[in-house]
Amino acid sequence: MTATTYVPRPAEAASADLSRTGRRGRRDDTRPGLAFLAPFLILYVLFVIGPALYGLVMSFFDTSLVKSGLGKFAGFSNYAEAFKSSDFWSSMWHTVWFTILTTPPLVILSFIFAMLAERATHGKWFFRLAFFAPYILPSATMALIWIWLYTPGLGLASAVVQKLGITSPQWLGDPHWAMWSIAAATVWWTLGFNFVLYLAGLQEIPRELYESSSLDGASPWQQMRSITIPLLSRTTTLVIVLQVIASLKVFDQMYIMTSGGPNFSTRPALEYIYDIGFTDYRVGYGAAASTVYFVLLLIVSAIWFIQTRRAERSA
Question: pTM, whole model, 2 decimals?
C-alpha cells in the first residue's frame, strides 16, 4: 500500500487560517483590557487583599501597636477569647438590632416614595432631588445635624415632642432611646440610595401593563399588588441584600453621635474592634475579632441571598 498525503482544499485552508487569525485576534484584544485593569488590580492587591491576608496572619499572634513585629505566636487563643467575650457578643447584638431597626423602613419607605415620585404629574425632579439629597451628605455632617436636632431643650425633636405635651426624652443619652434615635437618623440619611434603585426598577415596567389593567377595571392597589410588586422582585432582592450588608457594617454615625454610649448601649461590632485594636493596642486580638465578624457577616449574607433567590424561583 502506498501512503496518500491529504492536501486540503482551498476553502478548508482559508477556514483554518481564519480560525487561527480569530484566536490570535481574541488574544490580542484581551491585552488592552488587561493593561487598563492592571493599575486597579495592583492597588486592590496592595491595599485590600494584602492587608486582609496580613490581618489574618496577625490574628494568630499577640501583635501590639507598641511593639514591632508580629509578636509571640498565640495560635487560636485570640479566637477563643473573642468567642468567650461578652463585650464582643454584646456589640454583635447591637449591630444586629440596628439592622433590624433600619432595614424594614429603608426598604418599605423607599418603595413607597419611589412610587409616589414616579406617579407625580408635576415636579418629578423636585421629589427625586429631595429624597436623594441627604444621601450625598458626609457621615460627619449628617451626625452633626442630628446631634443638634436631638439636643435637649434646643433641638427640633425635643421642641416637637414638647409641643405635643410629652416630656422630651434624652434622645442620645438614654440607653433605651439612643439606638432608636441613631436608626431614625440613618433612615433619613440613606433612604435616597434605595429610592433610586426602586425608581430605576419602576421605569423599566412597561406602561402598557398599567393601561390594559385599568381598562379591565383594576384599581391602583390591585395594579401595585399584581404588577408592580412582582415585577420589582429582583430589585427588592437587591435592595434587601445591600441594605442588610450596609447595616451590618455600621460604624460612622454611631461613633460620631454617641461613641458607643451611653454605657456601651450603641457600640457596634466594628467599633468594638476599633477600640480593641487602636485604643487597647491589641492588634492581634482585634484582627481575630475582625475575622470572626467577617465570617459571620459572610454567612448571614450568603444565607439571606440563597433564601431570597429560592423565593424568587418559587414565585
Answer: 0.84
